[in-house]
Amino acid sequence: SGFQSKLDYSSGLFHMDIKVPSRNSAGIVTAFY
Q1: What proportion of the chain, given as a percentage, has pLDDT over 90?
Q2: Domain map (residue ranges) of the chain
Q3: Where is the GH16 domain (predicted)?
Q4: Which residues contact 29 (CB under 8 A, 6 or more apart)?
């Protein structure tokens, strides 16, 4: 269950990166990691 939700979270981040300008998505990824 935890593993599946982790996949969904990663997938959500990936799709969010596509919608957001690359410069901003880079900042978002850095903020999470």
Answers
A1: 0
A2: 2-28
A3: 1-33
A4: 13, 17
